[in-house]
Known about the structure:
It contains 12 helices and 12 strands. The protein is α/β, with parallel strands linked by helices.
Amino acid sequence: MRKAIFAAFFISAACAAPSAGTSANAYHLIPGSVPMDKGPDGNSIFLDAPEGLIVIDTGRHPAHGEKLLVYASERGKPIAAIVNTHWHLDHTTGNYDIRQVYPQVRVYATDAIEGALAGFLNRNREQADKMLADPKTPDARKAEILRARSVIDNPDRLRPTISVTSSGPMRIAGRRLEVHVAPFAATEADLWIYDPKARLAIVGDLVVDIVPFMDTACADGWKQALKDVAATPFVTLIPGHGASMDRSAFLQWKSAFENFVDCGRSERAKEECVAGWKRDAAPFIDAAHAGYVEEAAAYYIDTRLRSSPEGQQKYCRPLRA
Ligand SMILES: [Zn+2]
C-alpha cells in the first residue's frame, strides 16, 4: 500500500503561493497538492504569449484540469501551448482535458514517455486491475485509477506533438524561452524552462519541496541538473510541487538533496539519513506532511539509493532497450 502511494505518478501512487514574481505578472501559478490518500497534482504555471497562453504541466485530477480551463476562460485567451516538464501522470494527465477544449494546442515535451510506456507504465495496468477489482478500494480512488488507465491505454493523450530533444532557445506560442533538457534526472529526460526576461526558472520535479520524488530517478543526473539550474541567474524558481523559491531557498534545497543522496549511498544508518533530510529541508516541510516525508525518504533509500548496483543505475540509461 505504501508503495502505491509513493509510486505516485504510476497508476496510483504541498501547497504554494499565488501569482506574481520578480517582474509583475511574470507568471500565474495554479498550485498542485500532495494529499495523503491519493496521488498528487503537480504545480501548473501560466505564461502569457503573443499567440495565447502557455501552460506548463497540467496536473492529474479533473478538478485541477478544470482550474486551468477556468483561468484561461477568465483571461479570455486560448491555451496555445502545453509544456510538460516530465511525463509523470501528476503533470500530464490534464493534457487531454485541455486538448478537448483547445484541439489546436501544441504539446511540447521530451520523448521520455515512450520508455515508460514500453515497460513499467503498461505493466502497472495489472496492478490497476487488481485494485479496481478489490472491494476495499474506495470509489474516489477507483475513479483516479480509471482516469490513469485511460491515458495509458490512449497514449496520444499524453504524447508531445512537438518533441524537444536538446537544450536551446525556442519560440513557444510566439514567446522566446530557454528550454533545457536534463537527461537521466528525476525521469529519463526532464525539461525545464528559463525565462531570461523575468529571470524565472520553472523546473518541474527537479525540485519538490517536501521530499524529492525518486521513483524513476537517476541520482547523479539529477545532481547535475540542479547544478545547471544554479548556473542560470534566476531570481524566482517554481518547483514541481510547493511554493516558489528565491535563490537562497533553492540553494538550501539543493544541498539538502546532495546530502540525502550521499548519506543514502553511504554505510550510515537509514534513520540518520532520513533525519538529515528532515533537518536540512526543514523550511520546506509542513507539519501535515512530516510523517509522509519520513516514510517516503526511507522508501527512496531502500528502493533507489541502497538497491543493488544495477537497481541504482536502472534509470541512468534509456528504458527502451
Ligand atoms: Zn510531480
